[in-house]
Amino acid sequence: MMRIREVIVVEGRYDQNTLSQVVDATIITLGGFQVFKDREKLEFLRRLAQKRGLIILTDSDGAGFQIRGFLKGALPKELVKQAYIPDIKGKERRKRTPGKEGKLGVEGMRPEVLLEALRRCGATFEGEGETQTPQDPITKADLFALGLTGGPDSAARRQALLAQLALPEHLNANGMLEALNLLYTREEFLQLAEQQGGHA
Q: With helix as H, strand as E and coil as C, how does 49-97 read?
């Protein structure tokens, strides 16, 4: 499976499921139009853009373009790549009727179509002309050692750390772990946790 460096942003979890079977990448869902009101998620996306770069991959219908247009205005243009799927008529297998415009969304695309869309937008396929030394990831054991999981006041500590690091407050322990690994090296995180009184 091809590994992509950038974080890919899709509309919903069915899109995420389809794409995760095609590429090895971090895929963030927007929850459709909810992103318009979700300042925390937008701020999170800005930070991911700074750190890894973003690829926006929405459906090719009007709603998809509305979401894409909103994100174009809200995120730094130079850090965002736009991946477009073609207009293909049809309906997804799980749906009883086609969407309003009768077009397949990201979840209905064949793997080769999605790969082509990602290549066209300039996605960075790791292992193609670049080598990266893998970093030690932040692990669940680290979170446990810092009292962020498994303890009576772990949830409160997580909330405090999420607030201090300006991360979305609704992240659960697994989501927080993923976000931390995207934004920080293990050393950076452990230093931050020490400063924030993670051991306190």
A: HHHHCEEECCCCCHHHHHHHHHHHHHCCHHHEEECCCCCCECCCCCCCC
Query: pLDDT by residue (tens digit) across 47-68?
Result: 999 999 999 999 999 999 999 9
Please say whether the dihedral angle defined by the alpha carbons of residues 140, 143, 144 and 148, taken in this order, is positive or negative.
negative
Please return the burial class of 61, using the count of CB atoms within 10 Å of its CB with bins 0-12, 13-18 and 19+: middle
- Provide the 8-state DSSP code for 107: G
Instruction: Write phi, then psi, for 161 (nearest 5 degrees).
Output: -70, -40
Q: What is the pTM of this model?
A: 0.76
Based on its alpha-carbon atoms, the radius of gyration of the chain, rounded to whole angstroms, reads 18
CB 30 within 8 A of CB 9: yes
Give per-residue pLDDT as tens, 70-88. Answer: 999 999 999 999 999 988 8
